[in-house]
Amino acid sequence: MLTIYRASAGAGKTHTLTGEYLKMLFGSRGTEAEATHRHILAVTFTNKATAEMKDRIIRELYALASGAPSGHLSMLRAYAGDASEAEVRRQAQALLIRMLHDYAAFNVSTIDHFFQQTLRAFVREIGLQGNYLVELDEKPVLAEAVDNLLAGLDREDHNKDKDLLFHWLLQFSEAKVERGETWDLRREMNTLGQELFKERYKSVRTPLDREQFHEYNNTLYSIINHCKSEARALGEQGLHIIKEHGLRPEDFSGQSRSPFILFKRLAKGEVEKEPTATFLKLPDNPDGWCAQGSELRGEILQAYADGLNECVKGVIRFYETRMTDYLTASAITANLYTLGILGDIEQEIRHRSNEKNRLLIADTAELLNRIIAGSDVPFIYEKTGTRIRHYLIDEFQDTSQMQWRNFRPLVADSLAAGYADLIVGDVKQSIYRFRNSDWTLLDEQIARDFPASITSERTLAENWRSCRLVVEFNNALFTIFPVLLQGKYNEGLEQSTLSAAQQAHYREKILSAYAGCQQQVAPRFREQDGHVRVEWL
Questions:
Q1: C-alpha angle with apex 228: 224 to 232, nearest 5 degrees?
Q2: Hey, which end of the chain has fewer CB within 10 Å, N or C?
Q3: What one-character-per-residue DSSP string does 173-215 give?
């Protein structure tokens, strides 16, 4: 069974995690119990949390083994089938001794450490030597790559690739100047290069093939030029008909602000500004082409009949059918050079890392993801030398998509073998988006990955950290704010490009994410009012 705990701040999450770990530890008896701790993996997201969890588990085992009071004693007695207190304490002592003598196999670690430990079994497959270095901080690595690329531009041994990078950097600087922004290349390249370490980039990027890059770039410019040619032809045709009848665009209704001035812009290849609402009303509506009593009404109506009406329809049709292609191609070409720059920076980072036998911590999950893809997952992880049966994942709202893709087959394998697993998290505490965390994993992905028949959701509702007024104040905030935020979000939802089904999905998304956040006051705080002070800054 996969148990999912939703635990707000102060809800006794660490106490619950410790209890669940102890249940797994006490779960096997006889010879199998000799190494129970070797088959349990508890994952947290920081070294501090890892140390705290290890400390709490050891302290609880010591309390049980030494005869001291323990908040888990009655639970463990019931879990062991109404075992006696003496029996539970004896087993706790045996387990504690085994763990302390085999402390290296006490598997409570950060998610990064676990992935690194697993990846070390595959150093040959990823092209590294066994003594490779793990680089935790990507900033100096990125700075080194940027410096090397810029230094290479000054050398005389230029080649086609360097010339192309120089061209991209020139475009990059020009775009910054046009927007009135700084164009310090070194700093801007370091800022841009941060994208390389984000999962959203890793999930879509492919190795940069310069020939394909050129071909794609040429295709985009072909679309842009073809659209502009069509627009020019329409503009010139309209102006020609207008001129043939001795007219100017300003002679039509609106004069200097006449909608027919659009033909002038189109004839110059200026297509970005779309037709006005007045222009869209022109087809088959000659009465809207000129003011009543106009001296040029006869010439205007004749121009209408001689093809100008069809020309107006052609312009509207052009904007309805071709502008999406034009705007898309324009937007891509305006930023395509940044993809080229990113490709060169990434290539330089890989080159330097291979030279130094170095692995970036940011690449660990991705590399493991590639190894797992299409492989026998249990075998992959057994190659590390440890067969994990139970998984406890803490702070699950801070897990990334790629990390979960690595963990999901493990959890599935454990559940298929009949073992218990645990996930703990709280959607509203998801703050690590800069580390690629994805709160929707906890909110909806688990329900899609595992059927309800093998999952159980529980909420830790009591707050063991705060007095009554503090809890009531928080409950009030989390009742009002999601409603206000959802209302604000929904204001622009109908104007979005989302489908009707997607709009319906997101229309109450914030409300559902915060649905289970009401807390109860823990018994020991019910008689203590507490104090809340609000300051507007």
A1: 175
A2: C
A3: HHHHHHTT----HHHHHHHHHGGGGSHHHHTT-----HHHHHH
C-alpha–C-alpha distance, residues 130 and 121, integer Å:
9
In whole angstroms, give the CA distance from residue 486 to residue 503: 12
HSE-up of residue 393 (Cα within 13 Å, Cβ side): 26
Cα(421)–Cα(389) distance, integer angstroms: 8
Number of alpha carbons in the 13 Å side-chain half-sphere of residue 510: 14
Taking residue 198's Cβ as centre, other Cβ atoms within 10 Å add up to 15
pLDDT digits (tens, 9 = 90+) for 86-132: 999 999 999 999 999 999 889 899 888 888 888 777 777 777 776 77
Contacts 24+ apart (CB under 8 A), 474-480: 474/519, 475/517, 475/518, 475/519, 478/428, 478/514, 478/517, 478/518, 479/518
CA distance 231 to 371: 51
Neighbours of 516 (CB within 10 A): 16
> What pTM, to 2 d.p., does this model score?
0.73
Instruction: Kindly report the backbone phi and psi dihedral angles of residue 3, in degrees, each rounded to the nearest multiple of 5, phi listed first.
Output: -100, 130
Q: Do the beta carbons of residue 367 and residue 116 sit within 8 Å?
A: no
Structure confidence at residue 223 as a pLDDT band (50, 70, 90): very high
Q: How far is CA 251 from CA 276, 291, 306, 360, 383, in A?
A: 18, 10, 17, 68, 82
Q: 314 is written with which tokens?
A: 């052609």
Specify the DSSP element, H or E, that contains 521.
strand 520-521
pLDDT tens figures, 26-43: 875 433 445 688 889 999
- CA–CA distances in Å: residue 517 to residues 429, 464, 484: 11, 15, 16
Letter for the amino acid at 127?
G
Buried b (16+ CB within 10 A) or exposed e, 345-357: bbebbeeebeeee
**Spatial contact of 44 and 395, defined as CB atoms under 8 Å apart:** yes
CA-CA distance, 393 to 45, in Å (whole number)? Answer: 9
Cα dihedral 292→297→298→304 (10° resolution)? -110
Tell me the average pLDDT across 476-498.
90
Q: Which position has the token pair 């922004």?
A: 181
Distance CA(438)–CA(432), nearest Å, equals 8
Distance CA 346, CA 343 (A): 5
Q: What is the pLDDT of residues 384-411, one digit of tens each?
A: 656 788 999 998 988 888 889 888 888 9
